[in-house]
Known about the structure:
Layout lengths: L2 H7 L6 E7 L5 H9 L4 H6 L2 E6 L3 E4 L7 E2 L2 H6 L6 E6 L5 E5 L5 H9 L2 H10 L1
Parallel strand pairs: 1-2
Antiparallel strand pairs: 1-5, 2-3, 3-4, 5-6
Amino acid sequence: xxSYGQEIEKNQWKNRVLIxxxxxxxxxxxxxxxxxxxxxxLNFNERKLIVYRVTPASYSIGLKPSVKSIxxxxxxxxxxxxxxxxxxxxxxxxxxxxxxxxxLTKQELYRLIDSMPMRKxxxxxxx
Length: 127
């Protein structure tokens, strides 16, 4: 197991992971994405969703500024396009469920997650 994946893999079967990648924290799309999810903590918690904000030199967990971990490994592992911005959704099973280089709306995100079989079971079992 490679170390760059261990940070994300520790969430497997516990949390869904939303990775927001940017090559520059001043990137307009990146900042629009953060604003789109600004007040969604309850909805994210309900869907077992954790956010990783990843740049070429560091990453942090959560939507609000927090402690940064210095590492380029997550960026190198997950960055797949030439775009300066990407959003990646990783499901409970550890598989990539969505990858895009444009704004992901909260409606699109919730519709995708809520259509997943494990999420349907969560809703059914939690009433």
